[in-house]
Every structure is written in C-alpha cells, then in structure tokens.
Amino acid sequence: MRYSALSLLKNALTGNRDWQPAWRQPAPKPHYDVIIVGGGGHGLATAYYLAKEFGLRNVAVIEKGYVGSGNVGRNTTIIRSNYLLPGNNPFYELSLTLWEGLEQDFNFNAMVSQRGIVNLYHSDAQRDAYTRRGNAMRLHGVDAELLERPALREMLPFLDFDNARFPVLGGLLQRRAGTVRHDAVAWGYARGADSRGVDIIQHCEVTAIRRENGRVTGVETSRGFIGCGRLALATAGNSSRTAEMAGLSLPIESHVLQAFVSEGLKPFIDCVVTFGVGHFYISQSDKGGLVFGGDIDGYNSYAQRGNLAMVEHVAEAGVSMIPALSRVRMLRAWGGIMDMSMDGSPIIDRTPIDNLYLNAGWCYGGFKATPASGYCFAHLIARNEPHETARQMRLDRFERGYLLDEGGKGAQANLH
User: Fold this and answer.
1) What is the pTM of this model?
2) Rounded to an integer, what distance in angstroms lies between the CA atom of residue 88 and that of residue 84?
3) For the segment 36-66, what is each residue's pLDDT rounded down to a tens digit?
C-alpha cells in the first residue's frame, strides 16, 4: 500500500481503522536463494536493494528480536560524508546521496533533515587537519566549508569560544549532512523489501550455521532448519558470535556505546555540532530533546547498557563545549553494541567459506552508512564481486597490512 495525501485524509476521516500492516508475518520457507541474518538497517537495506536493483526476491531476513530492536534504533541519527581517505570518502558520499532520495525511493517519511554538521577545531594543528580533510572532500566533489571564528560565532553563539583550555577557533562545515529518524529507516526498508516479496521473519534466532563440503547450506534456527544458496551476515555487535558458528574468527571487538537525550527544549541547536577535543556530538530532535553521545565505554560487552563513568565523561565534554547544558536535565540513556574493527573501518566482503558473505565492523559509523552498505552488500551478493566504492573494505586487509585507518590510531579497536 502506497502512502499519499489522499490515503492520509481518508484514514483520518475513518478513525485510522483501514491501515494495513506495513509488512507480512510469513512462516519460513524450507529454502531461499539468499538468507540475511540480522533485521537491522543494514540487513533490511540489503534485502531491499537485492529485490529492487538486482531482481532477487526469494530472500529472507531473519531477526532474533523484532525489526529495529538493535543498533538501528539505538543511535544518534547523524548522517554525513565528511571523510578524508579515498577508501571512505566515495563510499559515505554514495550513502549521503542515497539518503537524499530515500524517502521518495521507498515512499516512506524517514524525516531526512539536512541541517548540516560542524566539526569544531581548537588549535592551529586541528585547523590544518580540517583544511586537509576539507580539501580532500572538495577534490572528491563533496561539499565542505572551513569557518573561521567570526562566522562560527554568528552561526553558533552558544559555544564557549573563550574556554581557557579549549578555545573554539573555527570549524569544518558540511551543509548536506544532518539527521534522519532512525526507526523510520528500518520501517521504510522493511516495508519496501516486503512489498517486493522478501520474507521478514522476526523472533527467529539463528543457533547454528550448517556446512557441507566446506559450503554453507543453511541455518539452524529457533524455528527449524532453513536452507539457502547464499548466506549473508549483518549482525553488527554480534558479528563475532554469528561468524563463529561457521568457524570464522573476525578482527572485531564488541563494545557498548551509550547515547542520551535531554528533556524537551525550545529550538536551540539547528545543526549537528561535534567537539574537537573530547568525543562529543549533539543535535536537537523535532521533539525538542537534545540528542548526544561520546566515546565507547572501553570494555568488551554484549550488553545494551553502559556505565555511569561514561555518563560523567560525556556530560563533562558537553558542558565544556556548551556551558548552558549544565542547566539541562538528562531524560534517558540507551546503549548499542558496536562491532569495532581493528582499524575503525567496516568490512563488506566474501569470507573464505563458500556462500558466506560478511557485513560488519561499522564501529560508530553504521547508521550513516545504511543505504550504501545495503546497496554495496546487495551488489556483492548478487554479482559475487565488490561494488566499486567498497573495494577497500576487504576482510583480508588486516592480514595484508592495508588498513583503512581514518583516525590514524593504528590497529587497536578501542582507540577508534
């Protein structure tokens, strides 16, 4: 069912009783051409593009919980493409381009808001680094502006420009960046995939991966065995667990990342702002709450909750950047399980096991990458070769020594 102004008016006049479910609740078939494990943003986007762009419709998405119960519903909703390295910049620009037409593509309001993002700098060295990044972005055809202090003060007057330790000297602005309603992304992709014949099977946990003669043949689940021609893993922070079922050890650690929202306020911040000294980023939702986050908690965990030490750390960074935050009450917090790769960049690749494909290692950047990740993963599964913009996101780069290290922090997951 396609949404339109006419259907909204009709249902408003009839008490909203005639809406149909956005997607079916099918029973699993005995066999699918492709099974995607993980009903989050990346898994659903992969299924959507497999059906829409590559004509593969005998596809199932298997989710142990409900659609959107993982990281796609547990993030700070930021989208951007302000990356430096050639292996990252074209990929995230593809993703941002897909975001710009996503709502029209799957006919669902995902609340894409291109309000811009400003990365603050606090020293001459940071200014030079942002100048380099901005130039790299411009060379790839990506928008970037370097704002000096007077222009930034006019745009963001609430910053503590004269902080004794961390004076704000300027910032790198990408106007096309912004935020998107995270739940709506999952719902839109699920609805779009379902309408093209994809089976979305919720509350179905994968317990084992069956192999015969070195090839994956299907998965054992809480609802029985389901066979497949190709198996794709898109399980975020649980990637190590699912890959282990196939005897595969991944260069990934799982960490918890907390996010927070404040009480509702009048319009205060009309863009996304990131601190250049501590890891802190903030925007304001349409409901008025300030949405913000910081570093991972720093220890391995599969729990969707964090600790109070990181709450304090994030609050300190926020107040250092915006002193007015000291008078704002925090409403709630939540956690997502981050699949932290050793170089801070993702993996979209075939595995050494026949018929097994991997989408993992997204660290902090999973949500913004959702459309491009799904498109490139679908391309890999359908054509058995990587998409041009994802060629450097190989699994064997760690063994070969070709790291995609955007942060320049080395091969240590907790530092990214």
Assistant:
1) 0.95
2) 7
3) 999 999 999 999 999 999 999 999 999 999 9
